[in-house]
Amino acid sequence: MAKSKVIYVRSNCSFQLNYGNSNLTPQAELVLVATKPVYKFAKSGLVKTHECDDIRVDIDRNTLNELIAELQNLSNVLNQFDQMSTGLNKVIDASKPPKQE
């Protein structure tokens, strides 16, 4: 199963009516548009196409703040991995046998 890749992120804000007390509550919708490869057989052979899909999630302020914190943490970890990969790539390159011409 191929992984999806997020290609577009959007959001919408609106109000949700609480019918019990007639108050409005702010509500956000997070929209992620993702694409994934799809492979099909054709007369010419295997053909790769792409399929798009959207994921829509209603989210309140507290959950949004938790998501922001988690994404910030992920960004920090990814920065650490980026620094580690720079050093590891130097080790990998140094361990390769010299190219013969």
Architecture overview:
This protein is α+β, with helices and mostly antiparallel strands and about 100 residues long. It has one helix at about 60-95; strands spanning about 5-20, 25-40, 45-60. Strands 1-2-3 form a three-stranded antiparallel beta sheet.
Present the secondary structure layout.
Elements: E1 5-18, E2 23-42, E3 45-59, H1 61-95
Antiparallel strand pairs: 1-2, 2-3
Overall geometry comes to flat
Overall mean pLDDT score? 91
- N-C termini distance: 41 Å
Topology as H/E string?
A: EEEH
Helix-and-strand structural type: alpha+beta
Q: Measured on Cα atoms, how large is the radius of gyration?
A: 23 Å
The main sheet comes to: 3 strands, antiparallel
The portion of residues forming beta strands comes to over 45%
Helix content: 25-40%
Order of strands, main sheet, comes to 1-2-3
Low-confidence stretches: none
Number of strands: 3
Number of helices: 1
